[in-house]
Amino acid sequence: MDLQDGGLGRAWEGAARHLRRAGLDFARGLADLVLPPLAHDSPEATAAAGLTPDAWSRIRFLEAPVCDGCGAAFEFDGGPFAETRCAACIAQPYVFARARAACVYDEASRSLILRFKHGDQQQFAALFARWISRAGAELVAEADAVVPVPLHPLRLLSRRFNQAAEIARPLARRAGLDYLPDALIRASHTASQGGKSRRGRRLNVKKAFAVTEAGRRRLKGRRILLIDDVLTTGATGEACTRALLDAGARAVDLAVIARVRNARELTM
Fold first, then answer.
1. Same domain, 12 and 95
2. Are residues 11 and 137 in the same domain?
3. Is there a contact between 184 and 211 (Cβ–Cβ < 8 Å)?
4. What is the pLDDT of residue 57?
């Protein structure tokens, strides 16, 4: 038999990989039935969602209809002829094209996010990636590549991991999208955004981000899904978006775990 260019061999290797993956998926499913996975917030056995029923019930997930521009929930469904954007986004659109958040940033979600972000509990990454994939399904479907908001090397050294990257990686893998962790860098070590007004946040990150040369080649003409943990005023998302657009990205959408309820009402 002629095995020109090793085509048949590669086909067999591909089939073998597929069977191995199927076997692993079956084994994981069987193991979950026998030994249910533990909740991230408790030693109790729980469903695959990763939270105990009590913790799950306290999370305020954002369901449609939401503003296409900032992801804020509308108070009611205005029907097929309603505006797709809130009044603030119509009057003063963000630089990023669209935004989605999985839930409201409040006491319930904040405790989980802070444990993930500052408590080194990286087991939350896959859970948050699933939340964002669901809330931002339209954005994921139309994206060409996924980019996490970067940390400055000094902050990365102290924290040991970039929370946005830990979410973006499994999200990109599940969606079959290019994952570009090094396309965007934090060029300056800025102060924390916490406690700053909307104007202060903008000034703090105005020129903080830059696109690498390698990133520029992979971004050009593509729609980018930018991943971060929390949307407050949108200053960080806008600063990243400007850098990505200047580097040739066709458009940038933003997806986060949570957003504050009144981002546009923070003190200017």
1. no
2. no
3. yes
4. 87
